[in-house]
Amino acid sequence: TLSDRLAATFKSLRGKGRLSEEDIDATCREIRIALLEADVALAAVRPFIAAVKQRAMGSEVSQALNPAQQVVKIVNEELVGILGGQTRRLRFAKQPPTVIMLAGLQGAGKTTLAGKLGRWLKSQGHAPVLVAADLQRPNAVTQLQVVGERAGVPVYAPEPGNGVGDPVAVAKSSIEFAKSKMHDVVVIDTAGRLGIDEELMRQAADIRDAVGPQEILFVLDAMIGQDAVTTAQAFLDGVGFDGVVLTKLDGDARGGAALSVAQLTGRQVMFASNGEKLEDFDVFHPDRMASRILGMGDMLTLIEQAEKAFDAEQAEEMARKLMGGDGFTLDDFLAQMEQIRKMGSLSKIMGMLPGMGEMKQQLAQVDDREIDRVQAMIRSMTPQERRDPKILNGSRRARIAKGSGVHVSAVNNLLERFAEAQKMMKSMGRGGMPSLPGMPGF
Ligand code: GDP
Ligand code: MG
């Protein structure tokens, strides 16, 4: 597996400073193979790997993770990011009905999806109607009616007077129908062809122009692998779409299509279909898809555990420092701050220390830019200055201010706050509870 190959790549490596370029290249080679094996299009793999490499080159060696794990973590984060981070929600019209149009090749799963979407919308408190605008195949209307019945959602189908044989007319009149019957969402099922077809695209574009959908969802069979990109591009050019629904994820496809389409069209997968039954449907989860594409859920779990363990260790060490009182230096101050940034907020750290739970409420969220400034200032100090800030006279302060791009008053302010923190450490060390936790001024 990829995990094994990566472990082998990094047999001997440990280090300080930055990740080395060779290590990163070696990992990226393995990641590249894994992505191609997952059917991610080559055109999508290249920019993806380039982004990962750039980020990895800039990052410092983590103390919690080995270099392979660290690069994999970056790969995973980038992957989740491109796949959409948090899944985008459906856009609803200010004036109902909201119109959702489904487009995609024949057999992609549009009609099935109409039922699933209808059922899901209904469960969310909407009153959807499904519209049979696929008049290409003789039994397409009946198929949607069966699906609608199973989903408990009404189906609007062509009848004499509303456009028999004319999908554009059916789609258009369905909007009036929805208004009159108080349906707030209209899901339009359209025809597909086996391949990309100009006439089909024109018909879909005509339906689009007739109904002005809030969302055009491109329905994509995850099993078509490498072809996903050309198909998606053709639909993007021919009809345009706002989001993607990936179907047949119950098969053995690794889901590379999700990355290819997101990377190359900038449109995100919003829903995932994983079976023929109406319940086999969910909003898309980028994190789950990322680990499916990488095929290394176990490694990601390991990474998470390693980081948690490391954070706990750091917190314990900090607790010892807090309780010890003496010897709290600017280095410790900086280390605390880095820890805080890594963990998100001071309140979390305090939560990890025994007996500090109640103090969490008192703690404000830490400002990231503030931490950047403090970091820059402390990093501009010599080791001696960090250990013994008393030697920081006017000219030293001016040098530090210049070196970190801040005004001298910011350096003065930092030193005042540090002195307060130090005092507080001492009072905690003597067992008294301070009125404020160890990090005043944030
Ligand atoms: P359409 O031509 O795009 O409307 O596609 P259909 O909805 O008619 O689906 C084509 C075939 O794929 C049908 O046999 C469906 O039961 C099947 N199908 C649709 N979605 C899925 C899915 O998520 N998983 C599996 N295994 N089959 C699916
Ligand atoms: Mg169909």
Automatic annotation (TrEMBL):
Its EC number is 3.6.5.4. Transmembrane segments: none annotated. One of its GO terms (molecular function) is 7S RNA binding. It catalyses: GTP + H2O = GDP + phosphate + H(+). It is found in: Cytoplasm. GO terms for biological process: SRP-dependent cotranslational protein targeting to membrane. Its main location: cytoplasm. The keyword RNA-binding applies. GTP binds at residues 104-111, 189-193, 247-250. It is an enzyme of class 3 (hydrolase). GO terms for cellular component: signal recognition particle. Gene3D superfamilies: P-loop containing nucleotide triphosphate hydrolases (3.40.50.300), Signal recognition particle SRP54, nucleotide-binding domain (1.20.120.140), Signal recognition particle, SRP54 subunit, M-domain (1.10.260.30). The keyword Nucleotide-binding applies. Residues 97-295 form the SRP54-type proteins GTP-binding domain. Keywords: Cytoplasm, GTP-binding, Hydrolase, Nucleotide-binding, Ribonucleoprotein, RNA-binding, Signal recognition particle. NCBIfam families: ffh (TIGR00959). Part of the signal recognition particle protein translocation system, which is composed of SRP and FtsY. Belongs to the GTP-binding SRP family. SRP54 subfamily. Composed of three domains: the N-terminal N domain, which is responsible for interactions with the ribosome, the central G domain, which binds GTP, and the C-terminal M domain, which binds the RNA and the signal sequence of the RNC. Involved in targeting and insertion of nascent membrane proteins into the cytoplasmic membrane. Binds to the hydrophobic signal sequence of the ribosome-nascent chain (RNC) as it emerges from the ribosomes. The SRP-RNC complex is then targeted to the cytoplasmic membrane where it interacts with the SRP receptor FtsY. This is Signal recognition particle protein. It comes from Actinospica durhamensis.
